[in-house]
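Structure (tokenized):
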């Protein structure tokens, strides 16, 4: 028999091309992007509500000033009382937080000093240094509406995002094309072949899909 005060941890994982929506014990809702993981307790106790993210997740936090909400993600901690924000911490990207509304405090694991973000700001962690920029938040949250949305993004970033979503690898036969910048939008439900055709029509690079690989020339 399990004692009533035992806290059970739940872990939810999403495969490629799949998102999941989770309601936490406090009423907070979390949308989990593909190839991501969320770990949370069956009940929040003590002075904080702590969860762990691998990959990408969008949070709508239930307000509770007495019990701050904490997200741990690959060496970066985000602290909040009630707000909407996006956390990205997968193996391809530096950990980052994008604040849509409310306010959050972000700090690297190596620091005790948090940085407070305002809505419309994006904090990214590189080599223990936190860089904050003003952004169009839709670039970072379009996935929650099942969209790809790239605005002046490099072909490398676009390819990484497509590779992760469709669970395929990416090969640059012409590495100089990696820095080519594009504006590109599409539905994530689109067939990968149609998507590559659309990118080819922009005539910035030649893409093909062979043997489960996106090849860029």
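Design, position by position:
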């Amino acid at each position: 028999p399990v004692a009533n005060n035992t806290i059970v941890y739940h872990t939810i994982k999403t495969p490629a091309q799949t998102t999941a929506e989770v309601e936490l014990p406090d009423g907070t809702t979390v949308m989990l992007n593909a190839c991501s993981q969320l770990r949370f307790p069956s009940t929040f106790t003590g002075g904080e509500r702590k969860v762990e993210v691998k990959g990408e997740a969008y949070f709508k936090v239930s307000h509770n000033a007495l019990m701050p909400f904490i997200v741990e993600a690959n060496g970066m901690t985000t602290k909040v009382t009630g707000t909407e924000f996006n956390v990205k911490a997968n193996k391809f990207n530096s950990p980052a937080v994008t604040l849509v509304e409310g306010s959050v405090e972000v700090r690297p694991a190596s620091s005790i000093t948090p940085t407070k973000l305002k809505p419309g700001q994006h904090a990214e962690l590189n080599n223990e240094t936190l860089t904050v920029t003003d952004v169009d938040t839709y670039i970072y949250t379009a996935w929650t509406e099942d969209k790809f949305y790239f605005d002046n993004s490099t072909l490398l970033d676009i390819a990484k995002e497509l590779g992760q979503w469709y669970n395929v690898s990416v090969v640059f036969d012409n590495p100089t094309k990696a820095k080519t910048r594009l504006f590109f939008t599409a539905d994530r439900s689109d067939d990968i072949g149609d998507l590559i055709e659309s990118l080819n029509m922009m005539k910035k690079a030649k893409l093909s899909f062979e043997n489960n690989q996106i090849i860029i020339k």
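Reviewer-requested clarification: Residues 50 and 70 are 5 Å apart (CA to CA). The longest helix spans residues 155-166.
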